[in-house]
Each structure stands twice: as structure tokens, then as C-alpha cells.
Amino acid sequence: MLKIGGLEAVLTGFFSSSTLWPNLVVTDEMRSRAEAMLDRVGASMLRDHRFGEMSSGQQRRILIARALVASAGCLLLDEPSNTLDLAAQRELRALMRTLAQQGTTILLITHQVADIIPEMKRVVMMRDGRIVADGPRATLLTEDRLSELFATDVRLTHHEGFFHAW
């Protein structure tokens, strides 16, 4: 279990390290930026909590802040809603929307259609390591396209800008 707190976990993003080793120098500017990223992702209250004792949803927020701290321009998320309960999934998607609306580019890899937030206008579909479709989300997120992609019968609903498949 990681013994570092939320703030320290975010600070490791400056060094691409798993911990703050003694040879790493954290400047006041870095600390200020890390605090700002905690605020940005709604995790200020976690600054002193031990990372290993946080819920999966809290850890996601810290890891997103960590990813953004050194360069807030782009965020790569790979299956971000895995292990999250329904409330945490909703919070994650709201955070993704806020970040996208603030200008952060989000590259998302997911099997969960509901993770594709309304701000994402382009979808690239892959199967067996190959691109099978690339285009506007409205064109690609259809029952027929998803059924073909997943090789199973897919039903799709649309609610408040989100698609839900089952």
C-alpha cells in the first residue's frame, strides 16, 4: 500500500516516478501547481490522505491530477471507469467533461460506450489491433456499428448527451 499522500502522489507527476525519492527537488512552484491540479479535479480534500487508503474513484482523481500537473494539454485515459461503482463513474465522467470544456484534449480507450462524453466528437473503432472505423460519434455510435464491432447484438440508448449500450 502506497504510504504517500495525495499531494505527494500528484508531485510525482513532475518526475515520472512512483515516489518522491530523496534526490528529487520539489520547488515551491511545483507544489503550487500540484495544489492547483488537486483543486481542478476536485480532490483538494485528499491532499493529506494516504493514496493506498483512498477509494478507486478518489485514486482516479489523484492520478488525473498527476497526469495533468506537468502538462495540462492532453490526457490519455485507458479504461478509466473500470472498478468504479455507478456514483464514481458518474463523477469521473463529469470531471472528464469539465476538463474537456476547459480545453484539455482527452484521448480515451474504452469498451464502455457510456465513457464517451458528449464533448468527444470523433470516434476511432478498433478490432484485433486494427482500425475498422474512424469518424463522427453520431455516425459511428449506432446499434448496427456497435453490433458489428463487438460481434454481438447491441442495444443503444441516448440520454443527456451520453450513449448507453447493452
Sheet with most strands: 2 strands, parallel
CATH class of the largest domain: Alpha Beta
Which consecutive residue ranges, at least 5 long each, have pLDDT under 50? none
- CATH homologous superfamily (4th level) name of the largest domain: P-loop containing nucleotide triphosphate hydrolases
Strand arrangement in the largest pleated sheet: 1-2
Find the structural class using helix and strand composition: alpha+beta
Q: For this entry, what is the oligomeric state of its chains? A: single chain
Provide the CATH architecture of the largest domain. Answer: 3-Layer(aba) Sandwich
Secondary structure: helix percent: 25-40%
The CATH topology of the largest domain turns out to be: Rossmann fold
Q: What is the residue-mean pLDDT, rounded to a whole number?
A: 94
Beta strands, count: 6
Shape category: elongated
Number of helices: 6
Sheet-strand content, in percent, reads 15-25%
Query: Span between N and C termini?
Result: 35 Å
How many separate domains? 2
Give Rg in angstroms: 18 Å
**Helices and strands, in N-to-C order?**
HHHEHEEEHHEE
